[in-house]
Amino acid sequence: MAGSCKEIERMLVDYADGRLSAGKSSKVAAHLAKCEDCRRILAALQRSLELAGVIWEDGLAESEAIRVPVPKKVRKFRWTRYASVAASILLAVTCSIVWRGLVRPTEEEPSFAEIERRISESGSAARLLTAADLLAEYPDVGSIVKQQYRYIVETYPETPAAAKAKLRIK
Amino acid sequence: MNEINPDYSAVLGTPDGEADQTASERSSETNVVDVFLAERGRLKRIIAGMGLSASDGEDVLQDVSIQAVKRTGKYLTKRESIRWLIKVTVNRCLMEHRRRRSFRRLASEILKRRSETKTGSTTAENKAIVAEELEIMRKTLQELDGSLLTPMVLRYFCDLNSSQVGEILSLSPSTVRSRLREARMILAKRLVERGIEK
Questions:
Q1: How many angstroms separate the CA of residue A80 from the nearest CA in chain B?
Q2: Residues A122, A92 share a domain
Q3: Scanning every residue of chain A, which has its alpha carbon at the shortest distance from the alpha carbon of B134?
Q4: What average pLDDT does the structure give for chain B?
Q5: Which CATH number is associated with domain B6-102+144-193?
Q6: Of the candidates B140, B138, B132, B136, which has an alpha carbon nearest to the alpha carbon of residue B186?
């Protein structure tokens, strides 16, 4: 009987769970009809699972109080989005540079006629200044020379000769 | 208990393995964080089955959520995500169980809560018997090795079958069944030793 009990004990859990084949199941049932000890173990198997279920369910009721953390989703790095933004910035900068290059000469750079006019004015002012300087070497012509310097300053104000004439008046 | 809970089989597959996994399911990759939020009820069930208190359970879920966030960007199907989340939760619960931080709620507290929610004609004598039974079971579950407790919780409380439990715990179905038998016999014999089996 003892040897048989060990053999039956190995199948008892599956028997309790209803997972034994019909043949094995009837063998266990036949043994249980005769063996008080195995019947007690079978009853204990069923009762222990009930009790474990009570404990687990009680724990589940308590776990309802658990505050589940809501993790923040990590955004995927979308390189295409960043690449398109970078390309847009690059395009805007390039357009700006090209536009400035096209527009600036007409606004700021002097024309050829203007350059020619400035050279001519500077030459005239320089000649007048030289003449005035030569005249200044003679006595009693101070007022005439000063008048000459003033003329240079007023007529050709942006020339280097006008700057020198200003100094000489002082 | 049924062998397969249809709810679980839908996401974890049949005992035969991967055969039921459709092509659309394979192609539909999901965010682990989304799956975590959808499956928190199941994870709570595992935590409760492993006997953790609400505060310990909160710590466990916190850790699992962090690991889920870290895993964002790795492509997994919904099934794979659920398996992974259960695995991480079980491992984290086992750490707490090894520290004996589980099944700390006394049988008397359990009974008190049950009496508040359930009505029945239980006599004082019956109550005392149930209290003793519950206390024996609580202590036995507390002392049970994690390698035996985990299959029990997943099989009998989370309604997974032996194959699904094996997949999660990286064990063969036959090993799972033998551990289940061992665990069940330990619990039953503890009741028999104390003269309580009915």
A1: 16
A2: yes
A3: A51
A4: 82
A5: 1.20.140
A6: B140
Query: Quick check: A10 and B181 CB within 8 A?
Result: yes
Considering only alpha carbons, which residue of chain B is nearest residue A61? B48
Predicted ipTM of the assembly = 0.81
Residues 6 or more apart in contact with residue B20 via CB below 8 angstroms: B13, B14
A112 and A165 assigned to the same domain: yes
Tell me which residue of B89, B180, B102 sits closest to B141, measured CA to CA: B102
pLDDT at A150 over 70: yes
Q: Do A48 and B68 touch (CB under 8 A)?
A: no
Q: Is the Cβ pair B156, A59 closer than 8 Å?
A: no
Distance between CA atoms of B186 and B180, rounded to whole angstroms? 10
Q: Evaluate whether residue A39 is within a structural domain.
A: yes
Indicate whether A107 and A54 sit together in one domain: no
Q: Does A170 touch chain B (CB under 8 A)?
A: no
Q: Is residue A122 part of a domain?
A: yes
**Co-location of A128 and A59 in the same domain:** no
- Higher pLDDT: B29 or B150? It is B150
Residue range(s) defining the domain that contains residue A130: 79-169
Structure token pair of residue A72: 């923040």
